[in-house]
């Protein structure tokens, strides 16, 4: 028998090899595995020092191991040492939550190579579990060993468990580059499981088929797979020169193909814009609908991002959020264009009240001075969501008060461009605002020309991002115009006509993707900005209607009113019913969020808008909390909702609920589906809602409600803690019929519910608890409770109080349970009567 000491970097274990057996010895334990029974899976579990004592980590390790382990699988415990473990031994480590030493993922490869457990180095399935991250040196070493030893992985699954700032894909990425894989992240802060990336064999195959992609149609069909495959292939690497050459060749082929179709595309765009200018709404809607069936033609930025990956752009990016914000890291810089470099010729011939504060004359060439912020405005964004929210469409800034405040604080007073130029010629350039004496970074000239627009864009980029183009420049200018239009910057009121003229110039002459987004699954045809705004607002009205996921109005809810303002100033007609569709879309989106947060509470509150209800409170220690949730809840009663309850409920809802009729609110709530995303919700945009009478639950307790006072006179027997079974020689059924009438419904369990509550909860119920119990009971035979149930419940509780007097809970329970049998109950009543 040959014995080898395997000790790379003092990672100690012993390898014994004898004929066709592999024996691994550690801590005086001997494990034997026949090479004829090679493992189908390798489960490599990180047991480095950072895992020690981590309950969250070891809890999930245990679940993952149990879910994936099959007899004969190879379990490896690794850190900067590596050990072959049996299932039982690994479970002991999990129970002890013990970890030590550093994180060296390359030791897994060294072990598999030295032991030759897989002689051809083809690993059927590697499952790697880790809580940490490693430097690019470890990533490079793993890549080197995989190449040097010709490792191949048929499948890879990665589990990253911990906090995002301490755990990322740096450990897993070398193993997943060339095989189908899925990587999950268990977030210690949110306690949620997230699929970070999933790459199929089809995705990987697309890399070898790049040379067959010749036009936009083929590229768009392959893009999602290409993006996933290249991200996985290039994560943490210095790039790939050969792959870059193939992507560039693909880009050139697409350019050549695109040039042949430009004339046809331009004609389509002209036809849509022409129809809008001619107020031909029907034709515009017809043309717009065709864009959803056509392949997206905007591809430049997507290809440039792929090229940047091939250049090593993902070298130090291992986190999912960082990958998503990759576009920000490669943002373009605008052409430098200062205000003093542009033509000062007046470009606005309309009436204006603008008087330059320097010349004290009416001028037609105003420039808005822009103050230098302490730091770029967009650097104030602290989350990935907010960053993508704002950069995706700058109009969303109106949803972030702190950011809009910072933006407005940079907007100074206007002066004339002529004054600035003359001051420069005199050797006294204006570097501070003449009115506020604050340092300026530049100015926004308001002429309707590309020269003025370029200077305005350059200045805006300085205050927003320190010079980078983050978000559409025309939309950033729209933010300025809307603020002035709404009267938020009073001292710019006199120059609003100039701002509006440049806004119109931008809207009519600048092109943008039809969907106003970077999403490749939505129409990306380039349209004039005004046309694109109209396109997004009108998409629900196209015929045929686009798929629900492509209803663009849903993607622009946060700033839809701003888009309406932009369309209005160019005079394009919007479809009749847009405001209704917009309000309903907002409402459904809001209701989806509310329903996901607390489904039962949401449904009960909606119920109270049309059905008479009683509001009860469920305490934290209540036995009903599993069914009703904790806090206030509504129980349905016979009859219509009263106005006071409706107004009270609406006052607790967001304002959008009060912008629509009660009928619409209730009706639309029935379409909210928590299993679908906001963009997938299917609901009527324009149809009239049905009457609330079709939704209200039936009146099944009318006879009892008309005679509810009679419940005050039904006594509880003090010997049984139940109503008398026999009274005046008549059993309870006969007595009930004579009291309420032969057609009166029987509320089964009205008094029994009280007694059973005491039995199960070891205490007497409050009124709210009694009502909750009655509703649970009534649910078996009715959809509602009597409208007078509160009064009825009070009468019954009073009857119990009079019967039990000073009885303890245990004494009450004893009598109540002993009288459960009807024969014994009658006997107990007889004894009571004799006494």
TrEMBL record:
Highest taxon of source: Eukaryota
Protein name: Uncharacterized protein
